[in-house]
Structures are given as C-alpha cells and as structure tokens.
Design a protein that fits this description.
7-stranded mixed β-sheet, 17 helices, 6-stranded mixed β-sheet, 499 residues, alpha/beta, single chain, globular
C-alpha cells in the first residue's frame, strides 16, 4: 500500500517540495508510517509569503460581510467533517477519539468567534469633538500573518490563528507540526472549500530553518506561535527584532489546589482527567496538585482511581489515555520519572512499562503519581508533558498560593472548593493568567481571550476573543472636518486648536 504524501499549499495549489527531504509521520500506537511530510526549501517559504503578500492586495478590500460568510461556511464544513478530522488526529497524535472530537469542538469555537467579525472589527467614533470635527478609528488588517503550531492540538491551535486573522482581512502562512500534519491539512482544505481565495491561506512544512525564515521575513507583519518556551522565546526575539508583532504561548507548569471542603469525587476525577488526559500532552494540564489540610488524606484514593484508568490506542473509545506522540517523548518522560525517584520523591504509581495488548511497539506510559515532591526536583521544575502527576501538601490556601506564585510560569491554575470566599480570595491573589474554579482546565470559551501570563507568554495580546482582533489589526485614527461649501478662512492658524 502506498504511503500518502502531504503537500504544501501555495497560492491555492498543492505543491511538492524540490528539497527532496521528507519525514515519516508515525502512528504512535504502532510505529507504522502513515504519511510522509516534506521539508520546504527557503525559496519555497519565500514563494508562500510572496503569494500571501500578493493576495493581500485584493483580500483586504473584500467586504467584512463576505469574509463573515466564508467563515460561516467554514465552520459548517468543519462541523460536518468532525469524525474524519478526529480520526486523523488520533491516527497521528495518538489521543483517544473522544478527546480528538473534543479538540475539534474547541477549534470550532474559535472559528465561530471569527464568524462574529462584523461586530468584532468595529471601530469607535466621537461625534463633534470640536467644531464640525469627528474622530473615529478603523481597525485595518496588517498584511501577511504567520502561524506556527505545536503537535499536541493539530486542529485547535491552527483554529486559534488563521480563521480570525483572515477574517480581519489579513493573509496567512501556516507551518503546522511535522509530527501530525494531516488533520491540519484537511482543515485548510475545508477552509478553501468554504471560499478562502488562492493565496490567502498557504501552508509550508519544515523545521527550525523554515520557522526562523518566517519569523524574520521582511514581508511578514505578525507571528503567532504555540509551543515550547525555548522555541517560542527564540521566535519572539527574531520577530520582534525585525519589527513584527508577535504572540508566543509557551511552556507551563500548572498547579491545582484542592481544598478540604471540595466535593471529593468531583475534585479527584477532574484532577486525574486534567493531568492524564491526552497522555499529559497539553500545556493546560494540571501536573501539580496541592492538597490542602485534611485533603491530604485523599491521596490513597487518588492513586487507586488512577490505577483503574485504561491505557490504549486512540481508536479504543474506552481508553482514558493513548500513547505519547513519539518514542523520543516516551524516553524523555520515563527518564524524568527515574530522576524523580533518584531525587527522593515517593513514586506511588509507576506508569513505565505498561503493556497494551496488541500494541507492543506503542509509546505508552501509564498514569504516574509522585508524592513528597519539592520545588527543587526536576519533576517539578520541568514541564514533563506526559501522564505524570506531582502531589504536594499545604497547611492552608495562602501557603498553597505562595507555591504557585513562586513558580515562574503562569499559564493556568485551578481551585476546587465549595467556599465562595476561598475561591474569590484565590482568584484575586494567585498570579496566573487563567483561573478555573471547580474547572480543571481553565481554557476559556473562544469569545474570551487566552490569557496565559508570566513565563508562559511573550507578547501583550493573546489568541481568541477581542485580543485576537487587536493583535491582527492596526488601529488607524482619523480626525475629520468637512467645511460647508463656500466658507472661507480669513487667517493662518499657527497654533494647535480644535475649537
């Protein structure tokens, strides 16, 4: 059976690279090669940017209503093809089908937000600020935008970027992860089927050299990135140093606080789902759980429930978590587990060596749970990006919050409590950009902005919501006076006056 080859999309056409460099896309449950993805040459990257730059000349003039209509058709096509998109995600990423379907749903939220562009892109006006003078603002598109996404959400992360960018009148070049590109490519095909014109949305593949060229390209006006802190910091500096806007959503070390007055069953189940779902491969997973006061007595029950979670291939709808995306990811996670043991943490549940019947080559790591974790240990300081939970204890809410605020990252946090006072105190005192109250993963619906903070984010404006429109547009302020026909001015005005 022939192996599908993933194409690039430049100026509305599928293009094969001339570089001759291809990478295998693997099913992480079997190591079967399910596709081959090309690595673009730098000339091909330049061609994609040039295509977007040329398309911007006409796309920027397309009415907001027509752009909205395209987004409305796009969201319907994505909705109608949810099953296919989820199967592609699961095949290449490894997450379970229900989880993949949920990812498509979160991506749909972002597309639906772009469908509101006729309202979101409105400017402001002040009437008669001075004699016959109006002042108003226009939110104008920037030009060519770039999106670079991580492997862990191959549908949702692109949806955070290009729908709102092109709805605002920009054109776009997308570089998806080379580890699981097929679902992203299908998403782009659906956008073109919905009516996105040739050149408005382009796709190139590759590694660091492609990403760096996009970040530094003189014709690119803005860059959006979601991925690791190391890569995000480098791309942010490259983009900023060449005069571009940049938003980089990066690494995390999210903490969840469980108060003794919380609903125990809800708190435990939500924490296990947050940490172990998607095999821990999400930047909003609560990998650190702080049990406050008597809630520390719940630890044995947490371990027992974690033991009952099912590990299997993504195609198994009964599985709670699938494999890690690659053998390298598996080796890294297992190495950090061993480091945790060596540094003195108590390994209460070891997910290494988990066997999944019929899938001996899968990159599986089962739920893993450490207790007696300290802030100096590698399993605390590093983002493990695997199904590993680190449990800590605190005497009170203030002590738990101090632990969170001392960590450099600020992507998300959560508290489980039945006390409105405790929840309110926590939301006002925790220094984290996104807070969940009895909600384990505090990613807001897409008509609110994604607001990770501190070391988890570079750039002032985040994806989604009104902030995304601000990011992808330039405010132009116009002060206008129209003289009555036949009026004259009898003197030269050398002072600044708006009378």
């Amino acid at each position: 059976m022939s192996i599908p080859q993933v194409s690039m999309i430049i100026n509305g056409e599928q293009v094969e690279t001339t570089s001759g460099i291809w990478a295998d896309v693997l099913n992480p449950a079997t190591q079967e090669v399910v596709a081959k993805v090309p690595f673009a040459t730098l000339d091909e990257v330049d061609t994609a940017v040039a295509s977007a730059k040329e398309a911007f000349k006409s796309w920027r003039k397309v009415s907001v209503a027509k752009r909205q209509a395209i987004m409305l058709r796009f969201q319907q096509l994505v909705r109608d093809n949810t099953k296919e998109l989820a199967e592609l995600i699961s095949l290449e990423h490894g997450k379970t089908l229900p989880d993949a379907e949920g990812e498509v749903g979160r991506g749909l939220e972002a597309i639906e937000n772009a469908c509101l562009i006729t309202k979101l892109q409105l400017g402001e006006i002040a009437d008669n600020v001075a004699g016959d003078v109006n002042v108003y603002t226009l939110n104008k598109p920037l030009g060519v935008g770039v999106g670079i996404t991580a492997f862990n959400f191959p549908i949702m992360l692109p949806c955070f970027m290009f729908p709102i960018a092109i709805a605002c009148g920009n054109t776009f070049v997308l570089k998806p992860s080379e580890q699981d590109p097929t679902s992203t490519m299908r998403l782009v095909e659906l956008a073109m089927e919905a009516g996105v014109p040739a050149g408005v949305l382009n796709v190139v593949h590759g590694g660091a050299d492609v990403a760096n060229r996009l970040a530094e390209h003189p014709d690119v006006k803005a860059l959006s990135f979601i991925g690791s802190t190391h890569v995000g910091t480098s791309l942010y500096n490259r983009a900023s140093n060449t005069g571009k806007r940049a938003q980089c959503m990066m690494g995390a070390k999210n903490h969840a606080v469980i108060m003794p007055d919380a609903n125990k069953d809800q708190a435990i189940n939500h924490m296990l789902g947050s940490c172990f779902g998607a095999a821990g491969q999400r930047c909003m997973a609560n990998a650190i759980v702080i049990l406050v006061g008597e809630a520390r007595e719940w630890l044995p029950e947490m371990v027992e429930r974690a033991k009952s979670m099912i590990v299997g291939p993504g195609s198994n709808r009964d599985a709670d978590l699938g494999p890690l995306v690659s053998p390298q990811a598996q080796a890294r996670v297992e190495g950090l587990i061993e480091t945790g043991v060596q540094q003195g943490a108590s390994l209460l549940l070891d997910g290494r060596g988990v066997a999944v019947e019929g899938y001996p080559q899968g990159n599986f790591v089962g739920p893993t749970l450490f207790a007696d974790v300290t802030t100096e240990m590698d399993i605390y300081t590093q983002e493990i990006f695997g199904p590993v939970m680190c449990v800590m204890g605190a005497d009170d809410l203030e002590s738990a919050t101090d632990i969170i605020n001392a960590n450099e990252n600020g992507n998300g946090t959560a508290i489980f409590t039945n006390s409105g006072w405790s929840a309110r105190w926590f939301e006002n005192n925790v220094d984290v950009g996104q807070v969940g109250i009895n909600i384990p993963i505090a990613v807001p619906v897409a008509y609110f902005s994604f607001t990770g903070s501190r070391a988890s984010k570079l750039g002032d404006l985040g994806p989604n919501g009104q902030q995304a429109v601000q990011f992808w547009t330039q405010t132009k302020t116009v002060s206008a006076r129209w003289f009555e026909p036949g009026t004259t001015s009898n003197k030269v005005h050398t002072t600044i006056s708006m009378k």
